[in-house]
Amino acid sequence: MAQNGSEAGPLVAGVAGRYASALFELARDERQVDAVAESLNQFDTLLKESADLRRLVRSPVFSAEEQAAAIGAVLDKAGIGGLAGNFIRLAASNRRLFALPDMIDAFRALVQDSKGIVRAQVRVAEKPSDGVIEEIKASLRDIAKADVDVDLVIDPSLIGGLVVKMGSRMVDASLKTKLNGIRLAMRAAR
């Protein structure tokens, strides 16, 4: 227990956090956490690949009935059912589809926390080779003393190097930051 009386764990707040927590507890009680996570990941992939689906999820123009019918058709065609399918349908009928991407992220955080997996974001200027990615993961595992799930973000503005965020820690070893530091030092030397 944390000092404020709540259980220690990932911070999930707001509408997305409440929905994700309820789904996680239900999935855990039904011993379906991995199946629900897989189905939510499948829907998230569909969401990322389809501009029309993103528009349906985000737009307040569609009525709850229209959203529920359209989401139902998408879920049926994709073969997403069970707890995850019912959860997505509930979000549609409650006019909460706009928060669904955040709900999925919050659910993932709860799953990772329950499995002792630490999440890290690694920003790099260009996509590294698989070998370099494995070296980064191994280094982060050594630091975290736990399994690490790495979100790789390509950010060409970094020029080179990398920026790693893991929990509350951040290491910025990007060329952009180093060049800015040199520029500031040269201004101060004038």
TrEMBL record:
<dbReference type="Pfam" id="PF00213">
    <property type="entry name" value="OSCP"/>
</dbReference>
<comment type="function">
    <text>F(1)F(0) ATP synthase produces ATP from ADP in the presence of a proton or sodium gradient. F-type ATPases consist of two structural domains, F(1) containing the extramembraneous catalytic core and F(0) containing the membrane proton channel, linked together by a central stalk and a peripheral stalk. During catalysis, ATP synthesis in the catalytic domain of F(1) is coupled via a rotary mechanism of the central stalk subunits to proton translocation.</text>
</comment>
<dbReference type="InterPro" id="IPR020781">
    <property type="entry name" value="ATPase_OSCP/d_CS"/>
</dbReference>
<comment type="similarity">
    <text>Belongs to the ATPase delta chain family.</text>
</comment>
<keyword id="KW-0066">ATP synthesis</keyword>
<keyword id="KW-0406">Ion transport</keyword>
<keyword id="KW-0813">Transport</keyword>
<keyword id="KW-0375">Hydrogen ion transport</keyword>
<keyword id="KW-0472">Membrane</keyword>
<keyword id="KW-1003">Cell membrane</keyword>
<dbReference type="InterPro" id="IPR000711">
    <property type="entry name" value="ATPase_OSCP/dsu"/>
</dbReference>
<keyword id="KW-0139">CF(1)</keyword>
<comment type="function">
    <text>This protein is part of the stalk that links CF(0) to CF(1). It either transmits conformational changes from CF(0) to CF(1) or is implicated in proton conduction.</text>
</comment>
<dbReference type="InterPro" id="IPR026015">
    <property type="entry name" value="ATP_synth_OSCP/delta_N_sf"/>
</dbReference>
<protein>
    <recommendedName>
        <fullName>ATP synthase subunit delta</fullName>
    </recommendedName>
</protein>
